[in-house]
Amino acid sequence: MSFVGSYTVIGGGNPLWGPGVICKLHYQRDAGKELGPFLHFDGNSLKANGGDTDNANFRMYQTPDAEGRTVVILEHAKSRKVMAVDKENDTVTLEDPSEPLDKLMKKSVEVAPYKILFHKRWGKDGYGKFYLQSLLDDKQRIVGFDENGELKKTMVAQPDHPESLFKIY
Q1: What are the distances in angstroms from CA 1 to CA 7, 11, 13, 50, 63?
Q2: What's the predicted TM-score (pTM) here?
Q3: DSSP output for 40-63
Q4: Hey, which of 2, 11, 27, 137 has its CA 20 to 30 A from 49?
């Protein structure tokens, strides 16, 4: 057993993964809109044109990486699927985790499956806006959506651009 900050670690693992926090991700392309649109799962794919429903609830787990950047795992609260990069189709999807999340989170970020890990990068204009960049290191891959809330290809979406910015609610 060891003590790290305010966490107690029993049996090793990564002590810094915070507990999952239920949140909604407010898509910032239409930031002037009050409470929406939200990232949601329609049963088939992720979209950024949803309302304030259960399908817009996500559990966000966070931990720092070796450079102090925030790494997140996003789990859809209702389906328990996690957001992942599909390299073959150059998109983002929700899928069942390869093993239970509590087991995955005992691993260090360096050995966890990178396709479900994202850097939470703060936007330049501040105000709590951020974008999600995949930890897959082959190419820059950003989670982004078009003007209709449909997914963009991860290698086409631009970092720190309205198509890729979110705020947490």
Answers
A1: 11, 6, 11, 44, 19
A2: 0.84
A3: EE-SSSEEEEE-SSGGG-EEEEEE
A4: 137
